Amino acid sequence: LGLGGGVGGGGFTDHLAPSLGYVAECFDSAAMRRVHGAALHAVGAVLLVLRVFSETGWGMSGAYDETACAHLPAADTAIIFSLSWSLWELVSVLRDVDNDTPVTVLHTCIMMSAQACVLFWGPFKQMMCVCLAMEASTVFLNPRLILLELWGKSVRSTCLFKLINICFGSTFIIVRLVMVIPRTYVHISAIYQHGRAGDISEWAPCLGNSLATIDVVLFFLQTLLNCLWGRMILSAAMRGEKQH
Length: 244
Hints:
Helix content: over 70%
Strand content: under 5%
Structural class: mainly alpha
Largest sheet: none
Radius of gyration: 20 Å
Oligomer: single chain
């Protein structure tokens, strides 16, 4: 809280206006329960995939794409953890329907389907861990949402909120764009080369042409979304600098 000293002598503690009853009510709401669940999932997923990367590295050599059906027990643990959270989120969303429910359900079902395919059929487990590493930005997104829910827009002027904003934007750009996009290129290139050679089934018996096609389409959409969100984050940051 001491990080909150701002212009005019105001600190973060000046914004602790909400009563304890209001805070308790916010934390008990369905939306906030999902935010807390997402926060725990983000931290847990990142820690588990770091364990995987300590064994495999980031994968830029393409070795784990060429050995598409490689057995990675540590990756299984990370995927099962994330899949369990996805199931909990789906149940939570369906129990408390609101305007965001359709989009949230769609996102959760896509994530669950992708993780289930990787877990049960076995292709590209290392690459799925690369996807889970994108949760690094969510580690900072959820505290941001919690602060806005509890203290409203006035909290935007505090140093703590600005620090969380910087951490969120930085991890998003570094992980999702600078690190994941080149790794995705290596991944898609391996599938493309074997697709041209017509030997996908021989190269990766656990994959097959259908899963390979779905894999390419989903990664294309994910990359497109990351670029769109990255552009929005950079635009928001530039607007903020101009206002100051």
